[in-house]
Amino acid sequence: MSELLVRPSTAGDLGEIQRIYEHWVLHSSASFEIDPPGEAEMARRREEILRLGLPYLTAEQGGAVVGYAYASAYRPRRAYRFTLEDSIYVDAERTGRGCGRALLAALIAECERGPWRQMIAVIGDGGNAASIGLHERLGFRTVGTLVAVGRKFGRWVDTVLMQRELGENTGELMAGLKAEARSAAGR
Known about the structure:
Elements: E1 4-8, H1 14-27, H2 39-51, E2 56-61, E3 64-73, E4 83-90, H3 99-112, E5 118-124, H4 129-137, E6 141-152, E7 155-165, H5 170-185
Parallel strand pairs: 4-5
Antiparallel strand pairs: 1-2, 2-3, 3-4, 5-7, 6-7
C-alpha cells in the first residue's frame, strides 16, 4: 500500500470528508450529531476553522482522502482562547492502520507552533476504546467523564474528556500562571 500523506485540507477534499463523517454520524456515537451535514455545511465549518487560523488536515493514501482532523476553539469565551479541541475522523475501512495517529500527531505539532497551550479531546461514548487509546498514546490524560449527556441510538451516551498540554514549556508556563494567581489573591 502507498505511503500515508498528512497535509492541509483543500476545498477539493470536502466530498470525501463529508462521506467519512457521514458514516460516523450514522453508525456510531463518536459524533453526537444525529443527521449528517451535507457538503456545503462541511465547507462552511472548514472555512470557519481556517478563518480562525487553526489547522484542518487531511490524510491521503493512494490519491484518496482516508481521514481528516482539525482543531477548533474549545469554548467561545475569551479566557479559553489558548485552549483547543481536536476532532479526528478516519475512513471506516481504514481504521487501525495508523491514520488516526498520524493525523493527531500532525495536528498537535501544528498547534504547538501557535500560541495555544492546552488541547482537549471530547470523546463521544465512554466505550470508544480506540479513540481513548489513541489520545493516551499521544500524551492525553483522562480528566473526567460526563455521564449520560447525549442520547443516540436509543441509549444514553457518556462523553470522556481528555487533556494534553501543548508546547515544551507549558508545565512551566502553567506553574507561573498559578503562582501569579496565588500572589494576586493574597493582595
